[in-house]
Specification:
The complex is a heterodimer of chains A (257) and B (318). Chain A is an alpha/beta fold. Helices cover 35% and strands 26% of the residues of chain A. The chains are: A alpha/beta (257), B mainly alpha (318). At the A-B interface, helix 2, helix 3 and helix 6 of A face helix 7 and helix 8 of B.
Chain lengths: 257, 318
């Protein structure tokens, strides 16, 4: 593995606890800048838990505890540090959820939301950024004439792209996808995967997926997780063609999981 | 082979018998349900139609614009309906913000521990406390300790206390119905808890909160016991001072003088009339009851309409 490639983040000795249960064990992993990194593994292996640690979603609920560091580049802050406000982290890192979760508001207001919570009031700036975000999420042509319609009038796939636009509007440095296509049909899934290809020009992507073909199609790097541990990490090609670990091989070839 | 078909036929016959027996119970329950429902509705219908028939004669414009009087035919409900309206105004202004804030705090901010559990149990139980207890509490605190006297302010605050648990509970229930995905979506965009409440939680919970408010106010407007306990007058022949009007030679009413004014409310007026020996007052009581019912029904209709309008824009799924 070429270590000279720029990194967006480095995970070091990361442990995570739900109360007294340890859900993630000693994870070490680089996140390469402007690349797609996929997290795969059987249900309950902790990949979503891991993903949600990056934007400190676990801070919303009591009894959760992080150990170790996630060093975020270029300014080398530790995302997990007590001194860093989780809101600051979430302002730099966007997230797209498993099920499309648009707000019961207009398309315009959905995309504007991140900007509004950052205090943006200038109508021109809002409109420009909303247009750019909707173009980047390949939704602009479908919604440009009905920006003030309810977001619920969109199809499931469109809603998910709207959620991506909502995350993109605030120029995140890292975008987290938590099984973004598991609630979508194959055509909508294809559109989202294509979108990810275009997005990685500007933004680093970390994606959890149940679907190994999807991981193979969209990602540059893949991490295989099992029972809260990172079993293997590497370039997607080498993980899928020549896994080093027996457990990874079993999972990928469908003998397990 | 014949044997086989035989057993099969037997089983089918048994099956059909079983289904028939089940269906009989089905039918039986339906009949019982309809009978009970009709009985309940019939009683209400009788009561309301009896009330209307007795009181209809007295319902005229004069009835609304006259003060109470010793002569039944000249007596009206002016001070009572104005009093009810003003007391409700105070109740709404006190209970709505307090109730919503308390509900939002408990759901969105408070940590789950034994203190919040205790508060939760208490609030649910407070809704079941007899209203006269609130009256006694108000007599001690608002009338004597705070010196508000037997005023509209005292009555409004007392009823506000009475309906506060209803508003808090309905606020919490409405908030709980909002999917976690909405909350997480908002927080993931970098919003603070307050921004999440301000842009999402409170607006989406509003239809449910509104239902609680109206149920509360509808209960408050019919309350008699606590209002009598704090010492509302049963006979009153003047209105609270209208702001900026002359109340006596050279003295103008301040904007909030009416808050400290003595008053009466519709339920007390009705109670007063029904306890008189002269049967002519009975018609007055029936007519006043009709007005009170109309007020409650109007409030409910407004609530249903508002809820319908608000819900139209709020859906969680396609």
């Amino acid at each position: 593995m070429n270590t000279n490639k720029p990194l967006k983040a480095e995970v070091k000795n990361f442990n995570f606890f739900y109360g007294s249960t340890q859900a993630l064990k000693n994870i070490n992993m680089p996140i390469h800048d402007k690349k797609v990194t996929a997290l795969i593994g059987p249900s309950g292996c902790g990949k979503s838990t891991y993903l949600r640690s990056f934007n400190r979603m676990h801070d919303l609920y009591p009894g959760n505890r992080y150990e170790g560091d996630i060093i975020f580049h270029p300014d080398n802050v530790n995302l997990l540090s007590e001194a860093i406000d989780p809101i600051e982290v979430r302002m730099r890192i966007g997230m797209v959820f498993q099920k499309p979760n648009p707000f019961p508001k207009s398309i315009y207001e959905n995309v504007a939301y991140g900007l509004r919570v950052r205090g943006e009031k200038n109508k021109r700036v809002l409109e420009d950024k909303i247009e750019a975000a909707l173009k980047n999420s390949a939704l602009w042509n479908e919604v440009k004439d009905r920006l003030h319609d309810s977001a619920f009038n969109l199809s499931g796939g469109q809603q998910q792209r709207l959620c991506i636009a909502r995350a993109l509007a605030t120029d995140p440095e890292l975008l987290l996808f938590d099984e973004p296509t598991s609630a979508l049909d194959p055509i909508a899934t294809g559109a989202i995967e294509e979108l990810m290809h275009e997005l990685k020009e500007h933004v680093t992507i970390l994606i959890v997926t149940h679907n190994m073909q999807q991981a193979a199609r969209v990602s540059d790097y893949t991490a295989y997780m099992y029972l809260g541990e990172m079993i293997e990490f590497g370039e997607t090609n080498s993980i899928f063609i020549k896994p080093k670990d027996k457990r990874t091989e079993d999972y990928i070839t469908g003998r397990m999981g | 082979m014949t044997n086989d078909t035989n057993t099969n036929a037997l089983t089918t016959a048994r099956l059909r018998k079983l289904i028939a027996r089940g269906k009989l119970k089905d039918r039986l329950f339906q009949i019982v349900g309809v009978i009970f429902l009709t009985a309940g509705l019939a009683v209400i219908f009788l009561l309301v139609s009896d009330m209307i028939m007795r009181g209809l004669d007295r319902l005229s414009l004069d009835f609304f614009t006259n003060f109470a009087s010793r002569r039944a035919l000249q007596a009206g409900i002016l001070s009572a309906w104005v009093g009810s309206l003003l007391v409700m105004l105070v109740t709404a202004f006190a209970a709505i913000p307090l109730g919503i804030c308390a509900g939002v705090y408990l759901e969105e901010y408070a940590k789950r521990n034994w203190v919040t559990d205790l508060i939760e149990i208490n609030i649910t139980n407070l809704a079941a406390v007899p209203s006269i207890v609130y009256g006694l509490l108000a007599l001690g605190i608002f009338v004597y300790a705070l010196g508000f006297g037997q005023s509209i302010l005292t009555a409004g605050l007392t009823l506000a206390l009475l309906i506060l648990p209803i508003i808090i509970v309905s606020t919490r229930e409405a908030i709980r119905a909002i999917p976690t995905a909405i909350r997480e979506g908002s927080m993931a965009a970098g919003a603070t808890r307050w921004q999440t409440c301000r842009y999402h939680i409170i607006p989406y919970a509003m239809p449910g909160i509104l239902t609680g408010i109206i149920i509360g106010l509808a209960r408050a407007i019919g309350e008699t016991a606590p209002i009598i306990t704090i010492g509302a007058l049963t006979f009153i022949a003047f209105l609270p001072p209208l702001p900026f009007t002359e109340i006596s030679a050279g003295v103008t009413a301040a904007p909030f003088d009416w808050l400290m004014s003595p008053f009466t409310v519709l339920p007390i007026q009705i109670f007063n009339w029904t306890s008189r020996p002269d049967p002519a007052f009975e018609a007055n009581a029936a007519a006043a009851s009709f007005v009170l019912m109309a007020m409650v029904l109007t409030m409910n209709c407004v609530a249903i309409w508002l809820r319908y309008k608000m819900r139209k824009n709020i859906r969680w799924q396609n």
